[in-house]
Structure formats: C-alpha cells, structure tokens
Specification:
By secondary structure, the protein is mainly beta.
C-alpha cells in the first residue's frame, strides 16, 4: 500500500489521530501540546488549537462532527467547537493524566480513561461527570463504546480488557430480580416499598 500524504507541522510526537464523521477532516494531538485540524484533500492544516498545558494524548470527534474532545496529561479534557476553534468547556476531576477518550454513538456521553485506572463518564451537554468506574489496577489506555452505546470496553496496563454494562434498563431488571424476594418477605420493608419492583423483569 502506497503512502497517500504526509502531514508535517507538529513539533514533536503525535499521540492520537481521528477522522471526522464525513471523512473530510483529520484531527491530531501531539506532545507539543497542540491539536491540529487537517484538510484531507489538500493535506494542509486548517487550524491549530491551543489550550492544554501538557501533552495531548487523545482526540475524538463527536458523531455529528460538530464537537471535538481532547484528553491531556494536564489532567483535563477539553471540548472544542469545530466551526470556531474555541474551547467550549474544560472537564476536570482527575488527579492523574488522561490517556483516552471516546464519544458514545448518540454523542451525549464521553468516556475517559486515566493513568490511575479510573474511567469517568461525562454528560456532554452539562459538562458534568455522570459516574466513575473503578476496577482496573493500572492505567486505562483505551476506551470504546459498542455501536448501540450499551457497553463500554476498556483496555489497561494491567493486561485486562473490561466490559461495562451501561444499559440502565437492564441493570434495573437485574437489580429488581435480586431484591424482589427481600422486598416481598422482609418484615422491615414498608408496605409502600414492597411494590417497587412490580412490573420490572420477571
């Protein structure tokens, strides 16, 4: 396979690249602390985004191509408006480097993995952390959503790939199946709470 083009404007290592959904733009994140947007047809840099205080380790387009997410060794995640090139928000909450990021298929949730083994899920509209997933014993190098958005996969330095169930309806069913007998038979449960799981699951 022949090389198609060579894009050469970063001053140091390139850690991450990602195509826009329409395939016309490429984004790259670098050790030089910058993010570059490239026109695929011309091979020219469209814009350079500044804002991170350390290496940009991961970049990812939202499914609609309007938003760019970047994770950095400065322990933050930034969301960028592709049209203006301006940072929309900075997501904070990590005490360690951010290794990896990934948008859910509907674009409403962003997953991130860090060197401390912690995975966070973020609400893209409110810029708030939804939940924190723990279980890896070392840094999380990669996170990826399944096509239906109900499962998150994470790969770690600990040599383990974990699959996380994000299907809230399924979790509710499993939870109710587990506590159903307790709700019905335990004398300490109030009458109003005994029907909490009625109509859910088996």
């Amino acid at each position: 396979m022949k090389q198609y083009n060579s894009l050469e404007q970063h001053d140091s290592w390139v850690f991450s690249v990602s195509f826009s959904p329409d395939g016309k733009t490429l984004v790259s994140g670098s050790y030089d602390k910058t993010i570059k947007l490239w026109n695929i047809e011309t091979g020219k840099a469209i814009a350079t985004l500044f804002g991170h205080d350390s290496w940009v380790s991961s970049v990812s387009f939202s499914p609609d191509g309007k938003t760019l997410a970047s994770g950095s060794y400065d322990k933050t995640i930034k969301l960028w408006n592709i049209e203006t090139g301006e940072a929309i928000a900075t997501l904070t909450g990590y005490d360690s480097w951010v290794f990896s990021i990934s948008f859910s298929p509907d674009g409403k949730t962003l997953a991130s993995g860090s060197t401390n083994g912690v995975i966070k899920l973020w609400d893209v509209e409110t810029y708030k952390s939804i939940t924190t997933l723990t279980g890896h014993d070392s840094g999380v190098w990669s996170v990826s959503f399944s096509p239906d958005g109900k499962t998150l996969a994470s790969g770690s330095e600990d040599g383990i790939v974990k699959l996380w169930n994000l299907d809230l309806d399924d979790l509710l069913v499993k939870g109710c199946n587990w506590v159903r007998d307790y709700l019905k038979t335990n004398p300490n449960v109030s009458e109003s709470d005994r029907t909490l799981c009625d109509g859910i699951g088996d």
